[in-house]
Amino acid sequence: MGARASNQRSANASGTGDTTFSIISTGGTSHTGAEGREPPCEATKTVTGQKHTGPSPVDRGKPGSKMHVLSDANGLPLLVGVSAGNTNDCTQFAAVMDAIRVPRPGPGRPRNRPDHVLGDKGYSSKAIRAWLRRRGIGHTIPERADQIRNRLRRGSRGGRPPAFDKHLYKQRNVVERCFNRLKQWRGIATRYDKTAESYQAAVTLASLLMWA
Q: Coil, helix or strand for 202?
């Protein structure tokens, strides 16, 4: 699902010891210079009766694709994956996290488990929180409004709210900046590639250039 930058060093390998990773998933086709209107995506246009070959299927009649970006504490991409625009963010979480391979500065196997993960409300689910707890990974993910309402409605049976550190959550802006830098490449922002493979290759190349 994802393509990993070959020089995944992050803060762990540079000696800072900061292994807080941030994750974001976002779709759409507009770039930072667009004036509120998304250009047509040639890669996702379909013709009735023909097999779709673009990076994502048509979602309710509208073309789209989604990028899943995992960045280190310095805002550099560790992994960038591409999926269909109608793919739920939380369904790709485990696949993105399992693909982590951060080389160590000395001998030993690559590190595949961060100390902490920052994510937005799209990753607020019991399954994801349980997945992180089983692996001993701390996380800061805000609850969705509907989850808060359901928990309060159930009273004492709803349990306690998950721990949430507002100050730590502010650090998630690094992945926002990482994604914004990736979309400086026009081909990535507009998604004009004909196939998912070529689009994934462009995203991988852009990620490598950010590390260079």
A: helix
Which tens digits make up the pLDDT trace of 118-167?
Answer: 999 989 999 999 999 999 999 999 999 999 999 999 888 888 899 999 99
**Strand positions, DSSP E, 47-196:** 65-71, 77-84, 116-118, 138-140
At which residue do the structure tokens 């667009």 appear?
A: 34
- What's the pLDDT band for 31 if we cut at 50, 70, 90? very low
Helix, strand and coil in the chain, % to nearest 5? 40, 15, 45
Nearest to 45 by CA among 177, 152, 195, 155: 195
For 50, phi then psi, to 5°, come to -105, 150
Give the full edge-to-edge strand order of the sheet including 116-118.
2-4, 77-84, 65-71, 20-27, 116-118, 138-140
DSSP, collapsed to helix, strand or coil, labels residue 186 as: helix
pLDDT on residue 64 = 66
User: Which tokens sit at 30?
Assistant: 């507009």
pTM, 2 dp: 0.72
Q: Whose CA is closest to 51, among 210, 195, 198?
A: 195
Task: Answer yes or no: are the C-beta atoms of 23 and 89 closer than 8 Å.
Answer: no
